[in-house]
Sequence to fold (340 residues):
Amino acid sequence: MAMPPLGEVSEEARLVTDADADDSPEGSGGRAIQGRSLRQIAWARLKRDRVALVGGVGVLLLVLIAIFAPLIVGLLGHPPDAQFAHKLDPLTVMGAPGFWGNAGVSGEHLFGLEPETGRDVFSRVVYGARVSLSVGFLGVLLSTLIGVTIGVAAGYFGGWFDAVVSRVMDLLLAFPQLLFAIALISVLPREMWGLGGTSLRMGILVLIIGLFGWPYIGRIVRGQTISLREREFIEAARSMGARSGYILFRELLPNMVAPILVYATLAIPTAILTEAALSFLGVGVQPPTASWGQMLGDATRFYSVDWSYMFFPGMALFLTVLAFNLFGDGLRDALDPKAH
Fold:
């Protein structure tokens, strides 16, 4: 192999030198390499996951639709409670026949009209996003707050408190949540706690989801706390005289943000499906308030002659759950320290 002239460096040596410089504490040109935080690493992984990004964009669009529902309906639809019964066939109480069935789909009514009532389906699907996302987010927020607080306390203190909490978790996990919700909502008075109608029913749904959902996150947090409470940084905090409250909320919880965030993201679609199931059975949100589950329940009487009435709210529910699951799975992979 011919030697390069004095003062010149071969291409192979230059490549090795550049690689060594990148791996050294100082980068090329004597510049120090800046380390990346866990947040930056997770964001870099998440950006490479196109499926997760699609799910994240879908979640963001759903949130924006729910927030700006009045503006969207004002531009493209009609008030969700407005009835256009005069546009229905008086014999079949259905809309105009066409490709989408007897839905009455037109430029004026993008998703057609509801059978019998003649309400605009597009407007009710858009407003239904508000109910589903509100119940889903608030229910998961409540269950996460309860589960994290009780789970970290049970895992850290142990003893009889941990035993009692574990048995309560087992009891709630074995309890028939759906049947209890149906029985409770069926006997509710018209007004309670200063709330009535839709506000009361949505509040009860949030309470049911939160009170029956916290054992799942509670078990995760309890297990993480048990594995962390004997670590060196916890022992160091104890040796310096830190109190239990400081250790719980300043040392343990920050190290469990990733699993808590992933669980909450994946629990939201489950809460949305719970609300839809209760509304489908007739014990959730009641008309005239729009709800996807309620619309699906009404559509069961007409799907044989007008499948489109079931298609639009069903597709909205499907895309919502799919978007949250795709984003949640991608977030779990991005926050996993063992992922490559």
User: Anything to note?
Assistant: The longest strand covers residues 191-192. The chain has 13 helices and two strands.
